[in-house]
Prior knowledge:
With 235 residues, the chain is mainly beta. It has one domain: Porin (Beta Barrel), CATH 2.40.160.20. Helix content is 7%, strand content 61%. It is elongated, with a radius of gyration of 21 Å.
Amino acid sequence: MKKILFLTxxxxxxxxxxxxxxxxxxMCIGVNAGVTLNEVGFDPxxxxxxxxxxxxxxxxxxxxEKFLTAYCAFQAELxxxxxxxxxxxxxxxxxxxxxxxxxxxxxxxxxxFARLAWGKEKKGLMxxxxxxxxxxxxxxxxxxxxxxxxxxxxxxxxxxxxxxEQYDLKVKNKFDYGITGGIGVExxxxxxxxxxxxxxxxxLADVFGNAKRDFFSRSNHSTIVAKVSYLIDIN
Length: 235
């Protein structure tokens, strides 16, 4: 895990520092917005649908050089994102129950990307790939549950594998970190840069405690992100 984070930070620093190809000194800043589809990887397993919520933030990008046909850049963002999980509740016979439960976990996130792009630098389309580490800090959490709560004969929520410890369990680890990457298309114009992209984030930290005394041995985020961005040149 530490090696993966080190390699991604190292790749970002190489793109900023190295000047092997044609020199560039282009800076952009702008805004981004999109939607997240999140699941939490629980062990023991909890059946889920995607937790769908908005994300938005600001983007900074520095392009340092053109190497062969690729434009090399460093990109950093400060984003708000609502993650969590949305349970798919069925009974022991896999029959859907009227119970609903959703946990919302709000984060401030900072991804750091190494970015490679190909295409038209000034006017036209570019295709790009980006990858890097991401850190996040939880700023709020909340629950949404139905008024009806189906209980079994033991007085606990009726679930197929008997897992109910997640209800009312507070987030233990407010600091989140992991690896993120994606691909996208950028339209460069005189009015700025318009971007559409898809990303995937895999969390390396657990939401809840994972010691032997804790119930869940794993509870990490897994997020699909679709977003659009608008950037303007500042240098």
